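Subject: for your reference before the review

Hello V.,

The reviewers asked for a structural picture of the protein, and I figured it would be easier to keep everything in one thread rather than splitting it across files. Below is the amino acid sequence we used in the manuscript, unchanged from the supplementary table.
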Amino acid sequence: MLETKVISNSEVLYVGRDDRDTSPSTKALHDFQINGGGGGGLIRSWVDSMRACSPTRPKSFNNQSCWIKEHPSALNMFEEILNKSEGKQVVMFLDYDGTLSPIVDDPDRAFMSKKMRNTVRKLAKCFPTAIVSGRCREKVSSFVKLTELYYAGSHGMDIKGPEQGPKYKKENQSLLCQPATEFLPVINEVYKKLLEKTKSIPGAKVENNKFCASVHFRCVEENKWSDLAYQVRSVLKNYPKLMLTQGRKVLEIRPIIKWDKGKALEFLLESLGYNNCTDVFPIYIGDDLTDEDAFKILRDKKQGLGILVSKYAKETNASYSLQEPDEVMDFLERLVDWKQLRCGA
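And here is what came back from the structure prediction:
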């Protein structure tokens, strides 16, 4: 019978209004306040932030070559990565949208290819592997369709271990970490209000990701972004225990607690028995602003490495880069081949 380890909200600190949280996703939105003076000016600042984090067209970077030197291709530097991981247990963390699947207009159709699924299946046989996504855990699990993985949904606020006991665990244990359970009713309430408020804006889509709600504006005309921001603010201003963060063409409504993808990474490493270990090598691959929390954890600890999936230069705590999901698959295939060669498989 599976054992369950539970973490509740009572073990997680709340982020106060004067809390000096400097995590990447929070820092990027310090001025992205829900409540503040001057409604018009505030909405303009929201739209400016939406535009900065979600450009409608690729930017041209004069420092692209410099950025590539600082964040070289993980494929080109594969041997260097192997050397860094020598003698250590590799643990894999993978974002979903934009990493394992392409970014698409309809978030309900962000399907991964059969080839990618087969690659991730082989990867999980070689290394402990987790999917860390802003999606609802059940939804991302239904997309991936692999029971041998760890799944961290809702930006790490909903973590579940493999249904099949992994060979690298001494005990057959199903992990459960849900630090925001008390917020479930209010998230559902806000989700319904957002549905009603945004239905007049063509292209807007609201997604209930269980412990957070997402307002997608990828298909919203840019001249309607201010209308969308106004409607979102009109709902959230009445919920002081919720905060707004941002990803690629999406606004995320989340509980104000000290929990993110970086915390999820730390929880999973500790649950696997690698807390404060020097012989573990986590690799985190992701494409979004919310993945920066995990990249920063690895950089600060000087442990493992982060790989940003992006075709264009952007500020990041990742050490290496890959351009698109196809390159992610190539990188994972190389890791699998390397592991199987070492094991004589």
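For the response letter, the relevant points are probably these. Residues 325-343 form the longest helix (19 residues). DSSP finds eleven helices and 13 strands in the chain.

Happy to draft the paragraph if you're swamped.

O.
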